[in-house]
Design a protein that fits this description.
mainly alpha, DNA polymerase, domain 1, hpI Integrase, Chain A, 3 domains, 3-stranded antiparallel β-sheet, 13 helices, 9% strand
Length: 316
């Protein structure tokens, strides 16, 4: 027998089944009760088909008590993201990008692989490659997204256990970060020379002289730069702390050449890049810095699975 219900904290309707003493639940993916009724009627029709000797694979698995969902990885990802609608658009975008990257890695499509067929070894290989191409922090973030998704699948009886390896098993710990180091002056000169445009030259210079986070530099306004006093004043986005940083002469000369004759103090130094950061976050910039600056400078190796790119029409 099947029934409909709502999960606590979710507006979407769900349908439930109880077969041989076991309960199964599945999200309708919509707050529309009419769609829940349609799904409920479909399940009842499938039950009648079973009694008549005609049965779909999905309901067959429910009736026989076999573990695992017959849904594809792609369909299961979409189902989870619909349940995350109360989160911020940027968070959902981060989840979507992270899961799309994993789906691309395992060559997932609408036809397969099935969620139940995703193995721990595939996830471990994906995360290790992510760690080799980026950093421990980035790889750990990718792992946390996968943990959230597969825990959702376990909670909803789509799989019996999460296949995501532990961070300890992957050796994603603080010790692995010790291989990272600051650039030498010679390397910085090469990075600046290989920067493909003025935006990335700006990022290299301000990063070197100001030592601030990428988001603070990308969204910095002209009003933050006091050429007469030789000071850059900014409020850090992450901490809210206000800083005054000496404006080095080399950076002042570079910024003077960039500054338009007439510009409002509130205007970002890089309007299109600032808009892109506000919309998509730092991930796309980190990927571009890796592929368009560090790779040509010979400081990193080419990635076997290039990340997705997101640009605006006016982006640098």
């Amino acid at each position: 027998m099947a029934w409909k219900f709502k999960q606590p904290g979710s507006e979407n309707w769900w349908v439930g089944y109880r077969v041989n003493g076991r309960q199964f639940r599945e999200s309708v993916g919509s707050p529309d009760e009419a769609k829940a009724d349609e799904q409920l009627q479909l399940m009842r029709t499938m039950h009648e088909a079973h009694k008549a000797g005609k049965l779909t694979e999905k309901f067959y698995r429910f009736l026989t008590g076999m573990e695992g969902s017959a849904d594809t990885l792609r369909a299961s990802v979409d189902s989870w993201l619909k349940e995350c609608k109360d989160l911020s658009p940027r968070t959902i975008k981060g989840y979507r990008d992270g899961l799309d990257e994993f789906c691309d890695y395992v060559k997932a499509s609408d036809q397969g692989p099935l969620l139940r067929d995703i193995q721990k070894q595939a996830i471990a290989a994906f995360l290790r490659e992510k760690r080799a191409a980026t950093s421990t922090a980035t790889a750990n973030l990718a792992r946390k997204i996968l943990v959230g998704f597969f825990n959702y699948a376990v909670d909803n009886d789509m799989i019996s256990a999460s296949p995501v390896p532990s961070s300890r098993a992957l050796k994603f710990d603080k010790d692995s970060e010790r291989v990272r180091r600051a650039f030498t002056l010679a390397e910085l000169k090469t990075v600046f020379k290989k920067a493909p445009n003025q935006f990335w030259k700006y990022m290299v210079l301000t990063g070197f002289y100001c030592g601030q986070r990428m988001g603070d530099l990308i969204t910095m306004t002209w009003g933050a730069v006091d050429f007469e006093q030789g000071i850059i004043s900014m409020t850090q986005r992450k901490t809210g702390k206000t800083l005054e940083i000496p404006l080095r002469s080399e950076l002042a000369v570079f910024l003077t050449k960039l500054k338009p004759a007439k510009v409002k103090p509130s205007a970002p130094i890089w309007p299109s890049e600032s808009d892109r950061y506000e919309q998509f976050g730092p991930g796309v910039f980190s990927s571009e810095f890796y592929d368009e600056v560090l790779l040509p400078a010979g400081l990193v190796v080419k990635r076997s699975q290039p990340p997705r790119r997101i640009r605006t029409e006016t982006g640098s």
